[in-house]
Amino acid sequence: MNRRVLLALLGMSVGVAAVGVGWVWPRLEWAEVDAPWTDPLPEHAIEDGYASFYRWRGGPVWRAWEESWLDRDPPRPEGPLLVDEVHASKQPWDADISMDTFGYSRMHGFARAFAPILAAGVEVEEVGWRWSGRRLAGASAVFVNLVSGDNAALRASEVVALEAFVRRGGGLVLITDHSNCYFHQELLAPLTGALGITLPPITAADPTNRLTPASVSWIRVFAASPGASGDHPVMAGVQAIGLMTAGAVEGLPALAVTSAESWRDRWEPYRKADSSGFTGNLERDVDEAPGPMAVVAAGTHGEGRVVVLADQNAWGATLIGYEDNARLFTNAVGWAMGRQLPPPVRGPDTVTTLMAPERSDCTSVEEEGFRTFQVQSQRWAARTGRGEGCTGRSVGASGGVILLPQGERADLDAVLAAPRVLVVLDPTAPITDAVLARLGLARGPVDADPPLAEARWVVERPAQDVPMLAIGSDRIEARPMAVTGPMDLWMTDTFGRPVVAVVRHGGTTVMLLLDADLLRNGALGLERADPRKGLPDGGSSRALAAHRLAHRLLAELYAP
């Protein structure tokens, strides 16, 4: 090919490009970039990479191009559920808690929430590149977990594509959180604004319905009144859900709300100098607006459906089993897709922790609570493929049950009909003689000041391939409750007092732990502390022994 031909071809290419640019350029929109919400950014945010999203905002948009793909292949209920892996990465959708994971992301992953969705045949696809009309074409719904400032921001073209997708019949399940933690509200503002949604930078604080006495932000919330939104398909079978520091949602009908005593705790971004998980002071100030406020909301946008949950942890591995959180997830995804999905069922293998109706010790992070033990039981649930739950309501026909009695329960006989039960007796709790009698036991001699003594297993238990059982000692100091009656002794102390024993109740194997202190947070440490690596308070050997005891009991409870 000679030089003249090459020059001719080059000239034609430049001409075609010029015509293309001349045709496309007038059709482009340019998004304005809002000023940063916090300026200057906190130093720790810059060091941790949370400034990266500022470089990716705005940009050009060719609206007709994005919508043309949806013209050719509109949203459809049988299409795949698309999961955002670009802007959201805090909790992988397929991550699950395991025996040796103590990091936040995997411990609070969404695998347990998605399990019923996958079992129902829903096709789930990860989206590892930016949203576009082409990628959204033919899908049923989009799932966006809490976006984070250490990832790329939503470009203006992505906002246009997502809004068009929903308006034309697609679904969106959006998880937000409190205040502007991880800068998520700032990142989402272009999208939520396009959908008519407002995310106020506050934390939902509620002193009335707490998951733990230690916090006004770990709370229980309830369905809105029937006839208003309580009968919405997303709330079918949902009465109460648990939240771990949530935000609020405005602009959509409220489905679950805080109590009248709640308040909107103001965002104070510089209060914590080492974290971008921004919060307020969690104390009621005179200028903070009262509740109730919506923490779950859902509504339509054009022909599509939008669900917003204002807490990233509610559907994570350690809280998905609480109350009706799992049912809420399946309902939300199904409704957003435009499909009817079978609800998750707590079957005969469900593990449920019981406590007095007014308290939720299994979610309490105080030293006297059992939050860390609850997390250990969830590790076994993931290992064995069985369900786990934590509820103050009657368990009905649930199977393996962890019972923390703090008084007589009317449903105790139903609980004891399960094939295997672990009963943790608290010497300091008001356990009645009637409850003990149902177990075939009686109160033993009461010592005003029972001594603390070393306890050891007297019956060898089957070996388990569990990291926590691979090292350390089974010797632990105990101060057990004194009971008498026919029982098989598994662990005793140096005074011969039973610490772990087994009784038979009809066809039920009832395992008794006679000292609740051995499983409390004060013994096991914080839920994310790995006792194999030592604890800050220097109590690693005691914590390891307590963890070994917890895992030996759970191994029996989860035995096939």
Descriptive notes:
With 560 residues, the chain is an alpha/beta fold. It has 2 domains: 41-337, Rossmann fold; 351-557, Rossmann fold (3-Layer(aba) Sandwich). Helices cover 24% and strands 19% of the residues. The protein is built from 14 helices and 24 strands. The protein has helices at 3-24, 43-47, 63-72, 104-107, 111-119, 133-136, 156-167, 184-194, 325-337, 371-384, 412-415, 433-438, 521-524, 540-557; strands spanning 29-31, 59-61, 81-84, 124-127, 141-144, 171-175, 202-205, 218-223, 240-244, 254-257, 263-266, 294-301, 304-309, 351-354, 388-390, 401-403, 420-424, 442-443, 453-457, 476-478, 483-484, 488-493, 498-505, 508-513. The strands form 5 sheets. A 9-stranded mixed beta sheet has the order 4-3-5-6-13-12-10-8-9. Strands 15-14-16-17-24-23-22-19-20 form a 9-stranded mixed beta sheet, with helices on one face. It has a two-stranded antiparallel ribbon with strand order 1-2. A hairpin with a 2-residue loop joins strand 23 (498-505) and strand 24 (508-513). Helix 5 packs across helix 9. It is elongated and about 100 Å long.
Quickly list its features:
9-stranded mixed β-sheet, alpha/beta, Rossmann fold, 2 domains, 560 residues, elongated
Give me the secondary-structure topology.
Layout: H1 3-24, E1 29-31, H2 43-47, E2 59-61, H3 63-72, E3 81-84, H4 104-107, H5 111-119, E4 124-127, H6 133-136, E5 141-144, H7 156-167, E6 171-175, H8 184-194, E7 202-205, E8 218-223, E9 240-244, E10 254-257, E11 263-266, E12 294-301, E13 304-309, H9 325-337, E14 351-354, H10 371-384, E15 388-390, E16 401-403, H11 412-415, E17 420-424, H12 433-438, E18 442-443, E19 453-457, E20 476-478, E21 483-484, E22 488-493, E23 498-505, E24 508-513, H13 521-524, H14 540-557
Helix pairs in contact: 3-7, 5-9, 10-14
